Amino acid sequence: MGRRAKNKQAPPTPLPGTVPDRSSISRRQQSKKKKAPSTANDQKTFKAQKGSLKKPLPAHRRKKVDVVDEDDSDLDQALQPGVLSEDEEETVKVKSVKKGKQAASSDDEEVEERSRPVKQLEFSDSEDDEGDDLNADGEALPLGQHAFDLDEAPSDGEEEDDLELGDEFDIGTDDEMLDDDMDEDEDEDEDEADSAFASENDDEDAEMAEEDEDEEEDGIQTNLEDDLEETYTLPAVDRGGEEEEIEHGTSLREVEQRMRWLVGVCLSKDDKMSKGVPGKSRSDHFLQLQHDIATYFGYNTFLVGKLMRLFPADEALAFFESNESPRPVTIRANTLRTRRRDLAQALINRGVTLEPIGKWSKVGLQVFESPVPIGATPEYLAGHYMLQAASSFLPVIALSPQPNERVLDMASAPGGKTTYISALLQNTGTIFANDSNKLRTKSLTANIHRMGCKNVIVCNYDAREFPKVIGGFDRVLLDAPCSGTGVISKDASVKVNKTERDFQLLAHLQKQLILCAIDSVNPNSSTGGYVVYSTCSVTVDENESVVDYALRKRPNVKLVETGLEFGVEGFKSFEGKNFHNSVSLTRRFYPHKHNMDGFFVAKFKVEKRKKATKSVIEQEHEEEEKPQLKLNDEGMIVEEEVAKFDADEDEALIEESKRKALKKKGIKITSKPKPSATKEDKKDDGQVKVPKGKKVTEKRRSKT
Ligand SMILES: C[S@@+](CC[C@H](N)C(=O)[O-])C[C@H]1O[C@@H](n2cnc3c(N)ncnc32)[C@H](O)[C@@H]1O
Question: Where along this sequence does the record place binding of S-adenosyl-L-methionine (predicted)?
């Protein structure tokens, strides 16, 4: 790369965890000086979509929300109130946060929400029907919704407290002042940064100035972009797509610059690739981009390739970038124990800064800052709320359970969704909360108790045993085990530990589970007859493909609207595969679009089966042939070892026992025993082929 070009480029965002401070500092510095040259597309930002959450606070503020992640089942830790780590102790002293500046999105709704004074925040609780609830326009709110005015609507006898609260919480009322505040903060940071790296950059400045002068003197008009394009190479293509940790002699900064440039090239509509490296095709540039994203963000190239294919190049980059920052901390008010407005008030009393999650939820709160560990407050311990990712509300909203129904939650631990279903059922009806991992059912049970759910039965089966265990449910939720490609910001190990085989095995398991979910529904249910399928993964293999498979195998089901107000339509076709048209009714959620975990939701209506159709028969055959998969204790998906038996030995034993039985009856057998299993009957692995229609029972397997 030409030196001139290098100096004039803005420095890249470094690989997280490598040299963040320095790079972010110098990036700011550079942006003050000179805007980086870029293609039209690579600077495109993705607008916040409807339903998206507010951007989290800057990192130094964000740290102050200490959570105990329920998804990590670390409940024991959560139940240790009063033990503060050093970090936590520090946060207690922190002044309350000011909102406003973090509204980086240009989304209208978001800007409007943000600029609204706190006074006008509306909290609505589904379970409370009392009071004259009017919205900001003075119209009556729908039944169960409340206009929540923190200043003007204190609970009985709490006026004094509320006045104080109002003061604490007036932080959102003067946005201009806040903006100034935040600007000052940022300026301070930048000044520090300036001085920290002044000498290095002074040198650079001097060099750049010299070069500029030279150019002016020579009367040369340079087009920087062209200069760059001429100097880029595609090393990954040159080495035949082989993975390499990091190219020798190439800094991450250079990788990032090339990556952003490649985004523009890949997006360009020009068939001649005039913007790219001469002689190289679009797929060559795509391959290099895949390698650069993998290098820069620390993924294996296989996964990058898989995820990149979901998006246009610029959106793919936005997706990978969004995986580098945490999603907002959100909690769900437990309406079995409290109302959202009361919970909000109680937490505000503790210095927590929060807001309703968005108009789409009546129970969600987004926590911006907390001086206390949010997973160990007295309200948390008393079960007034669940720490729950916003995306995890969605399948339950789609399931929409009705009072007195029987609901099956097939894979339920640690119970975020189970306890939400229980609240929506208002503790009526029955929920079977199943999970195949016994250890995880402990945290599930603990959460059920903490949240005061009295309508839940915990069970511990492989969900593929349903509906044999019990069936006839009004609604079934299958929040399936998945690869977690939607939650990489929470679990970075996904970046490197997934192979194509994992995706195949998971999809296979998910397909088995979805058929069991459908078969567990009572198609005659007077109130329901629905299955919701969800995953926290964004791959098509685990989502649309599974849904399409279910539609093909079970002609008695159809997809219906999820009832979710936002989200992107599911793919109707992908990489040459066409799915059923109705697959567009499914919904995808993305971190870069909705500021929540990547998620997928599909809702099926189950009708009566007409008769044993071909697909049913096919399915039954499949069940005999399917390899049994399970998650091991580390959460890895593995094939269950099929207990092998020796057919020759079995055959001889059977014959011997028959002979003995007949002998007892006084019948003497003269004929020769049947020949044992022939070579042809044996599979390569030494197992005996079981004729279709006959099952090898567990008992028989365990004999050996
Ligand atoms: C995505 S998590 C469920 C999260 C849960 N629904 C919640 O909201 O808290 C998937 C769960 O599936 C369970 N699981 C994996 N394989 C299973 C199987 N064959 N049958 C039942 N559960 C299974 C895992 O133990 C894990 O708890």
Answer: 411-417, 435, 462, 479
Provide CB contacts within 8 A for 235, sequence distance 6+. 247, 250, 288
The per-residue pLDDT for 327 is: 97
Determine which helix (DSSP H) or strand (DSSP E) holds 203, and give its type and residue range.
helix 198-218
Which has the closest alpha carbon to 13: 264, 256, 288?
256
Q: Supply the pLDDT for residue 27.
A: 35
Give the pLDDT score at 556: 96
Q: How much helix, strand and coil, in percent to the nearest 5, is found in the chain?
A: 40, 10, 45
Confirm or deny that 660 is annotated as ligand binding. Answer: no
Q: 437: helix, coil or strand?
A: coil
d(CA 510, ligand 1 centre) in Å: 11
With a cut of 0.85, is the ipTM above it? yes
Whether residue 510 has its Cβ less than 6 Å from ligand 1:
no
Do the bridges between strand 599-606 and strand 353-356 make them parallel or antiparallel, or are there none, so unpaired? unpaired
Question: What distance in angstroms lies between residue 434's CA and the mean position of ligand 1's atoms?
Answer: 8
- pLDDT, position 242: 67
- Give yes or no for residue 332 CB within 6 A of ligand 1: no
Q: In a mutational test of the pocket of ligand 1, which residue from 392, 485, 536, 631 has the highest number of ligand atoms less than 8 Å from its CB?
A: 631
The number of angstroms, rounded, from the C-alpha of 138 to the middle of its chain's C-alpha atoms is 38
Q: According to the model, what pLDDT value does residue 655 have?
A: 80
Cβ(415) – ligand 1 distance below 6 Å: yes
- Is residue 484 lining ligand 1, measured as CB closer than 6 Å? no
The answer on whether 414 is annotated among ligand-binding residues is yes
- With a 6 A CB cut-off, is 416 part of the ligand 1 pocket? yes
- Looking at residue 437, what is its pLDDT? 98
Q: Structural domains in the chain? A: 3-36+216-299 (no CATH), 59-175+328-387 (no CATH), 396-639 (3.40.50.150), 647-703 (no CATH)
The string of pLDDT tens digits covering residues 658-675 is: 888 888 778 776 655 444
Q: Whose CA is nearest to atom 10 of ligand 1?
A: 481
pLDDT digits (tens, 9 = 90+) for 75-107: 233 223 322 233 333 332 322 333 333 322 323
| Cβ atoms of 405 and 529 closer than 8 Å | no
Q: Is 412 annotated as a binding residue?
A: yes
pLDDT of residue 462: 98
- Residues labelled as active-site residues: 536
Q: Is the CB of 440 under 6 A from ligand 1?
A: yes
CB burial class (10 A; 0-12, 13-18, 19+) of residue 347?
A: buried
Nearest CA to ligand 1 atom 15: 481
Residue 193 labeled ligand binder: no
What Cα–Cα distance (Å) separates residue 6 from each residue in 9, 297, 325, 598? 5, 21, 27, 35
Distance between CA 572 and CA 583 in Å, rounded? 6
> pLDDT value at position 670?
64
| CB-ligand 1 contact for 37 (6 Å cutoff) | no
- 88 phi and psi angles, rounded to 5 deg: -65, -40
Looking at 436-562, which runs of residues are DSSP E strands? 456-459, 475-479, 530-535, 557-560
Phi then psi dihedrals of residue 130, to 5 deg: -90, 165
| Among the listed residues 37, 4, 468, 409, the one whose alpha carbon sits nearest the alpha carbon of residue 218 | 4
Mutation choice for ligand 1 from 399, 435, 537, CB with most ligand atoms inside 8 A:
435
Residue ranges, the chain, pLDDT below 70: 1-48, 55-230, 238, 241-249, 611-650, 669-704
> What local confidence, expressed as pLDDT, does residue 29 receive?
37
Residue bearing the CA closest to ligand 1, atom 25: 437
Q: What residue's CA is closest to ligand 1, atom 1?
A: 481
What does the pLDDT read at residue 664?
A: 78
